[in-house]
Amino acid sequence: MSRVETGEASATNIHWQRFSVPYEYPVVFTSGVFRPDNPALIDTLTRFEPDKQHRCLVFVDDGLLACAPDLPSRIAEYATAHGNRMTLVAPPRPVPGGEKVKNELAFVEQAQDQVYEHGIDRHSYVIAVGGGAVLDMVGLVAATSHRGVRHVRIPTTVLSQNDSGVGVKNGVNLNGVKNFVGTFAPPFAVINDSELLNTLPVREMIAGMAEAVKVALIRDADFFGWLERNADALSIFAPDAMAYMIRRCAELHMNQIAHGGDPFETGSARPLDFGHWAAHKLESITHHHLRHGEAVAIGIALDTRYSVLSGLLPQGEDDRVCFLLEHLGFKLWHPALRKIDASGNLAVLRGLREFREHLGGELTVTMLSDIGTGVDVHEIAEDKVLEAIDWLEKRREV
After folding, report:
1. CA distance 151 to 149
2. What one-character DSSP code corresponds to residue 156?
3. Tens digit of pLDDT per residue, the chain (398 long)?
4. Which of 30, 248, 287, 387 has CA atoms 20 to 30 A from the CA of 258?
5. Which among 389, 371, 376, 395 is positioned nearest to 214, based on CA atoms?
6. What CDD domains does this protein's entry cite (predicted)?
């Protein structure tokens, strides 16, 4: 019998479900966010329901608490001053800063337990105060509790204020793979407080500037020129120069996310990950003794030199980029670049394979065709990577 005679369907029916969801969140630049007379936080919390008392659960980076032990009391005083519109469901909860909080899933579970215990619902707030690692972990908790509760980020490092804090990614590490467990979930709001940067050690201040150099190199030659002209001021952390650098860097990251055509990274291109394939691996190899920004600076130098060696970027631009990074305080060599893995290969090259696995399918790495212009390549010649590593080592010896 034919299919028609038996009554069987002769074709598959497909019903396409299509809808779009607009995403919108403020990125606020202020100073003294927890001063009772500063309206930035309370205005952010009440922008949808101005007359409601909003319940808040706050997590604070313990590295920040070591430098600012009075911060929990300041947060509590702020909540009391605005008690008709916000309340803390518990005293601010400390969580480990740095990669430790991302390397152990137990911290995610503990924070989710806090969300459950205190009855945080989809109209309450989870507020994270800290560096990028803390924001990543707490963001994951917020995104996966009740399928998403409102999350306010208050970044406290240069790196998180100008890059990760204003983006849409959350995640923690698993089996040594960076951000293997994660989500794309925009925050409810981001509040950048310049005053909180005063607690940072020098090393962290320097590390955060790597992402400004990165985004300038791939998107804004004028900003790169500004960084060069203001390198002296940035090297001593002059407040006005730091404020502009952070704000412009954040703007460029936000513009890429909003207008780059792939905010949730469903494709293979990752322009904002310029320099990161090596950086992520260097962090892992060094057990995170290298800060993220320090590893990114090395990755930028490596890929800029590779761009010259492969004929994409004019000769001499690699020296120009490295000079700026060194002027800002970065060291562009680390012995981990020479580490050999168990199979007898250069360990950092495993970063390329992991990058491809993370993307899925085709390898896509951003290189430079000019200062301010990134270009995607789909093959990396390992011999040229080795040449670039040799070049960086020789620079150290000069």
Report:
1. 6
2. -
3. 444 455 555 678 999 999 888 899 999 999 999 999 999 999 999 999 999 999 999 999 999 999 999 999 999 999 999 999 999 999 999 999 988 999 999 999 999 999 999 999 999 999 999 999 999 999 999 999 999 999 999 999 999 999 989 999 999 999 888 889 999 999 999 999 999 999 899 999 999 999 999 999 999 999 999 999 999 999 999 999 999 999 999 999 999 998 888 888 777 677 888 999 999 999 999 998 999 999 999 999 999 999 999 999 999 999 999 999 999 999 999 999 999 998 888 999 988 888 777 666 678 899 999 999 999 999 999 999 999 999 999 988 76
4. 30
5. 371
6. DHQS-like
Write the DSSP string, 342-380: TTSSBGGGHHHHHHHHHH-SS--EEEEEETTEEEEES--
Q: Sign of torsion, CA 60 66 67 69? A: positive
Reading the block at residue 318, the tokens are 């690699």
Helices (H), the chain: 40-45, 62-67, 71-81, 100-103, 106-117, 132-144, 158-162, 202-207, 210-219, 221-229, 231-235, 239-259, 276-285, 292-309, 317-328, 350-359, 382-397
For residues 217 and 274, the answer to whether their CB atoms sit within 8 Å is yes
Give the DSSP per-residue string, 206-217.
Answer: HHTTHHHHHHHH
112: which 2 tokens? 């989710």
Check residue 261 and report its DSSP letter. S
Q: Which residues pair with 55 in a beta bridge?
A: 87
Do residues 180 and 174 make contact, with C-beta atoms less than 8 angstroms apart?
A: yes
Residue 285 in tokens: 């190899």
Beta bridge mates, 368: 374
- Helix 276-285 crosses helix 292-309 at what angle (to 10 degrees)? 130
3-class DSSP state of 7: coil
Tokens of 227: 């960084």
Q: Which residue is listed with tokens 């579970």? A: 109
Round to whole Å and give the CA distance between 51 and 59: 25
At position 117, the amino acid (one-letter code) is: E
The size of the chain, in residues, is: 398
Burial of 253 (0-12, 13-18, 19+ CB in 10 A): buried
CA distance linking residue 113 with residue 245, whole number of Å: 38
Cα 309 vs. chain centroid, distance in angstroms? 29
